[in-house]
Amino acid sequence: MSLEALKREAAAQAVALVRPGMRLGLGTGSTAKHFVDLLAERVRDGLDVVGVPTSEATRAQAERLGVRLTTLDETPELDLTVDGADEIDGALRLIKGGGGAHLREKIVASASRRMVVIADETKLVETLGRFPLPIEVVSFGLGATRRAVEAALAEAGCAGTLTVRERDGAAFRTDSGNLILDAALGRIPDPERLAEGLDRVTGVVEHGLFIGLATAAILATSQGVKVLGEP
Ligand SMILES: O=C[C@H](O)[C@H](O)[C@H](O)COP(=O)(O)O
């Protein structure tokens, strides 16, 4: 099975969790895109749900496919968020933000009773950190914020380099207009400690460590679907 087929399989399993009337968080990325596609098929068949998109890309996709949307201002509590991840460990801790959407994704997941992660098997790791950790920062004071982030990394026992994310030769801007520092760390020995340290840095808007948010992960493998937690 191709990676794309595995992602679609995980998405299909998550769509089966959706019940009429649910208020959904709609994730971002190539795996979440399959979920929105498959959800839209059920909506066309008469399923009544409403969704909060976690990015402008997901908003555009959902609108195009006719999935009814709302905001967290109108609907501050959600039943279920389904989203992808860049890495998942056995304790359901995640790295997210490969597409730069982790700020809105974290807000939406935090407003949701359940967060189910969908992914292909390559995303499951023993130790988080092989995927560079995205850290969203405001552009004002970048040099000083960067130094404070470096200190937080060192305090949490992490070593590595920070790179300002670029796209098409220019600094990448998130949907909220901020920059991303990608921290190539190799391994994160204590994700909780690192998350707490980064939370304390003024200038950091949000980092891609999701801890205590995912309630389950649906991982599609070539041997079938593996579920972590309670979907
Ligand atoms: O910012 C992007 C999101 O956190 C994505 O959910 C994450 O990068 C996984 O994306 P994909 O399903 O494309 O691997």
Automatic annotation (TrEMBL):
Record keyword Isomerase present: yes
Positions annotated as active site in the UniProt record: 105
A GO term for molecular function: ribose-5-phosphate isomerase activity
Catalytic activity line of the entry: aldehydo-D-ribose 5-phosphate = D-ribulose 5-phosphate
Pathway(s) per entry: Carbohydrate degradation; pentose phosphate pathway; D-ribose 5-phosphate from D-ribulose 5-phosphate (non-oxidative stage): step 1/1
Positions contributing to substrate binding: 28-31, 83-86, 96-99, 123
UniProt entry keywords in alphabetical sequence: Isomerase
Superkingdom of source: Bacteria
Gene3D superfamilies reported for this sequence: 3.30.70.260, 3.40.50.1360
A Pfam family it matches: Rib_5-P_isom_A
E.C. number(s) listed in UniProt: 5.3.1.6
Homology family: Belongs to the ribose 5-phosphate isomerase family.
Subunit structure: Homodimer.
Function comment: Catalyzes the reversible conversion of ribose-5-phosphate to ribulose 5-phosphate.
Protein name, UniProt field: Ribose-5-phosphate isomerase A
Source organism per UniProt: Alsobacter ponti
Top-level taxonomy: Bacteria, Pseudomonadati, Pseudomonadota, Alphaproteobacteria, Hyphomicrobiales
